[in-house]
Amino acid sequence: MLQLNSLHHIAIICSDYGKSKHFYTAILGLEVIREVYRQDRQSYKLDLALNGRYIVELFSFPNPPHRPSHPEARGLRHLAFAVADIAASVDELKRQGVEPEPVRVDEHTGKRFTFFADPDGLPLEIYEA
Question: CATH 3.10.180.10 spans which residues of the chain?
Fold first, then answer.
């Protein structure tokens, strides 16, 4: 069996780099580690951290193809972030102009959670931990 230590990062390709950079940094609060423009690929690569830990690579490419991203489509279903207070997190998302779904309760754990979308419609979740 492969011995995995932890999740290293998630890579996201966006359609509007400026809008997505703002969303992931100013709204979600991820910290910029480094930003590189790769001239040969006409692409930005933005490395982001959560609480000082590298977690997301945000890429821009010219004309990236669309990918189905509905919750039940094959492939990555969503990216979830743990929060201490779901109500405060929902209020902050709304204050920033992001409209989350109604808060639900996980029937197996009793924890509260909700979904919302990034600028490209990627489903994101906040889960009260």
Answer: 1-63, 77-129
pLDDT bucket at 114, cuts 50 / 70 / 90: very high
Quick one: pLDDT at residue 69? Answer: 64
3-state secondary structure of 40: helix
* Residue 74 in this model has a pLDDT that exceeds 80: no
CATH, domain range 77-129: 3.10.180.10
* N-term to C-term CA, the chain: 29
Sheet containing strand 31-38, edge to edge, reads 10-14, 53-60, 43-50, 31-38
- The position carrying tokens 């979600």 is 28
Predicted TM-score (pTM) of the model is 0.86
- Look up residue 11 and give its amino acid: A
Can you name the CATH fold of 1-63? 2,3-Dihydroxybiphenyl 1,2-Dioxygenase; domain 1 (3.10.180)
Higher pLDDT, 68 or 20: 20
Contacts of 19 (CB under 8 A, 6+ apart): 119
Strands 31-38 and 79-83: unpaired
- Opening angle at CA 71, ends 67 and 73, nearest 5: 50
